[in-house]
Amino acid sequence: VRSELLDLGVPTFMVEAGPGDDFGDQTCRAIGGMKALVAFCHEDYGELTGAGYETYHELKAAWNRKVPIFPIKLAEHFPPQPPGPPEGKGLTMLALAPCKVHIDGLKMNAQEVAHELAKMWHKL
Fold first, then answer.
1. DSSP assignment of 19-43, as one string?
2. What CA dihedral angle connects 66, 12, 32 and 59, to 10 degrees?
3. Own/partner long-range contacts of 78-82 (Cβ < 8 Å, ≥24 apart)
4. Cβ distance 4 to 111 under 8 Å?
5. What is the pLDDT of residues 28-55, one digit of tens each?
6. How many domains does the chain contain in total?
């Protein structure tokens, strides 16, 4: 999806940390400058794991800052119902409410998902 988005002129960021790199710093820089969040909603999306740099915190930052969230459904249930502490499930129910329009990634290929995301991005 990322390469397709770049081809469509949509700026993207994805953490790319190698051995010895600090993915937390990259995540913080991304969150600080994000204009939209693409949420790849697997069944555990939004889980509060305690790692500190997880989808829970990315989603919470976007929600708190009123950053547009573009959810992609990649599991049977939407919004996701992550395991773990109830804060994760509560956040996904709030930020990814059932009424929120989402892209059904279970029924589309990567190119189709990217085209839908690009349409949403260019409306911002």
1. TT--HHHHHHHHHHH-S-EEEEE-T
2. 50
3. 78/41, 78/102, 79/41, 79/46, 80/41, 80/42, 80/43, 80/44, 80/45, 80/46, 81/43, 82/43, 82/44, 82/45, 82/46, 82/47, 82/48, 82/56
4. yes
5. 999 999 999 999 999 999 999 998 889 9
6. 1
